[in-house]
């Protein structure tokens, strides 16, 4: 007799992926400067720890808020009892304004079109439940965030069909790749319910171009029942040009889609405070949709993953402080840029390059030259060496469903500068050692083959002498 349900035990969760195995390896042997200096450094976690001091100093200056008081009076009872699943109006308003500020106020968000969820994880799954039946499919450009296998597929039964993007054009989405993905889904008898993208991309660390977004909007528009979901969880992390353009801005700019066009009902934005504010533990996410039916359905479902009222209370006060948020956004981006540069130059010293990035908490790193062969087996072999021998937990491209072996995602914002420097030192040591091993292996092969050659010549000379002698003797 089975003790657990099929759903609980099936492997679509993705727990067996190298992405999660790397985390387990780190948890068993975590690096600590003092207590475990040889331990594994976690570079597989997209966490933003660079601006905690800004948040902490705000909390210090606003003790009433963290003490759950307003105008000196305790809010404890109100917060303990209150839980309307529509969310606190003041918080939704403050969050909507924060999202608009990040987009340079080129687009505005209406709090009535927002559904609060326990992080983007819950927001993405809730949207899947609202938009697709079990066995329907969403098209996703590769490489994509490994957590999507769990968030989009596991409990909903929705399928992901990859839009295969390649290094030949810096992993941008092309029309043929999009059409191919659609054909692949049709061949598998899957009904395509839409496209989901992350902008800026996890794991690429790049923003999407207007032309890519227009391509997707055209594709959705050409079909009656398709949706476009834009996961904009990293929108506040864009630290270099080209700047961030939200899908909402693209819709607004298009003359053929003026307000009222029904396509506005089929485009949805996902956001969370896990990355931009560095608060994944607070579990604050949101679905933004101009489709009232979607908002109503998602609100009904949000009971399974609400944001606690004390979190909403605290963050509404923080986000209402415009002077603080403005400064935070600018300063956080400055710090991310510095970190990204440190990683890029550290990698360069080790002879490793990465995709040019302008956003996110990670780089998409090209280690194809370190593979023994151009295969995913070789990628996993290299990855195991880096995790277990070098002591760096990085995420292999195959865990992000990349179609080319040899790419890895390396996170840079979840550690101190000293730890990042150590990580780069370890990686450089590994590259030097493995290239010199490869070289000595090659020269051993070369020596062996030149010995073989001279032996062959010697044998040839000997045998031709014998041949002459034979001739003479005859
Ligand atoms: C693209 C993307 N979407 C969603 C999530 C989940 O975020 P949250 O902590 O808000 O659930 C992540 C986290 O890494 C992510 O990278």
From TrEMBL:
EC id: 4.4.1.14
Cofactor list: pyridoxal 5'-phosphate
Catalyses which reaction(s): S-adenosyl-L-methionine = 1-aminocyclopropane-1-carboxylate + S-methyl-5'-thioadenosine + H(+)
Domain Aminotransferase class I/classII large span(s) in chain numbering: 41-427
Record carries keyword Phosphoprotein: no
Pfam families recorded: Aminotran_1_2
PROSITE patterns xrefs: AA_TRANSFER_CLASS_1
Keywords assigned by UniProt, alphabetized: Ethylene biosynthesis, Fruit ripening, Lyase, Pyridoxal phosphate, S-adenosyl-L-methionine
Keyword Lyase in annotation: yes
Protein name in the entry: 1-aminocyclopropane-1-carboxylate synthase
């Amino acid at each position: 007799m089975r003790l657990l349900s099929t759903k609980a035990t099936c492997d679509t969760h993705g727990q067996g992926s190298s992405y999660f195995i790397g985390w387990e390896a780190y948890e068993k042997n975590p690096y600590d400067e003092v207590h475990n200096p040889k331990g594994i450094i976690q570079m597989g976690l997209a966490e933003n720890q660079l601006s905690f001091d800004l948040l902490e100093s705000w909390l210090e200056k606003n003790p009433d808020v963290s003490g759950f008081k307003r105008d000196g009076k305790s809010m404890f009872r109100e917060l303990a009892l209150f839980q309307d699943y529509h969310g606190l109006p003041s918080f939704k308003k403050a969050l909507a304004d924060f999202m608009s500020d990040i987009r340079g106020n080129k687009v505005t968000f209406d709090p009535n079109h927002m559904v609060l969820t326990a992080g983007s994880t819950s927001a993405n799954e809730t949207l899947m439940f609202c938009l697709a039946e079990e066995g329907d499919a969403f098209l996703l450009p590769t490489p994509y965030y490994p957590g999507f296998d769990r968030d989009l597929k596991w409990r909903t039964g929705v399928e992901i069909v990859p839009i295969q993007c390649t290094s030949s054009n810096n992993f941008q989405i092309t029309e043929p790749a999009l059409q191919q993905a659609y054909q692949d889904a049709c061949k598998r008898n899957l009904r395509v319910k839409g496209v989901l993208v992350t902008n800026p991309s996890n794991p690429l660390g790049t923003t999407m171009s207007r032309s890519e977004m227009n391509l997707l909007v055209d594709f959705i528009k050409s079909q009656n029942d398709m949706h476009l979901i834009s996961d904009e969880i990293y929108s506040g992390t864009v630290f270099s040009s080209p700047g961030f353009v939200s899908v909402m801005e693209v819709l607004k700019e298009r003359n053929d889609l003026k307000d009222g066009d029904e396509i506005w009902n089929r485009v949805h934005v996902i956001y969370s405070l896990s990355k931009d504010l560095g608060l994944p533990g607070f579990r604050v996410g949101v679905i933004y949709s101009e489709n009232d039916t979607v908002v109503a359905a998602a609100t009904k479902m949000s009971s399974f993953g609400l944001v606690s009222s004390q979190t909403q209370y605290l963050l509404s006060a923080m986000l209402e402080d415009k002077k603080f948020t403005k400064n935070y956004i600018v300063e956080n981006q400055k710090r991310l840029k510095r970190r990204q540069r440190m990683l890029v130059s550290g990698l360069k010293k080790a002879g490793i390059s990465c995709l040019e990035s302008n956003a996110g908490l990670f780089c998409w790193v090209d280690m194809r030259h370190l593979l023994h062969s151009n295969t995913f087996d070789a990628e996993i072999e290299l990855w195991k060496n880096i995790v277990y021998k070098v002591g760096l937990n990085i995420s292999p491209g195959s865990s992000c469903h990349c179609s080319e072996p040899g790419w890895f995602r390396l996170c840079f914002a979840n550690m101190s500068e000293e730890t990042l420097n150590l990580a780069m030192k370890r990686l450089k040591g590994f590259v030097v050692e493995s290239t010199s091993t490869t070289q000595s292996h090659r020269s051993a092969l070369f020596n062996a083959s030149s010995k073989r050659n001279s032996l062959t010549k010697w044998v040839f000379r000997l045998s031709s002498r014998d041949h002459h002698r034979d001739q003479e003797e005859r």
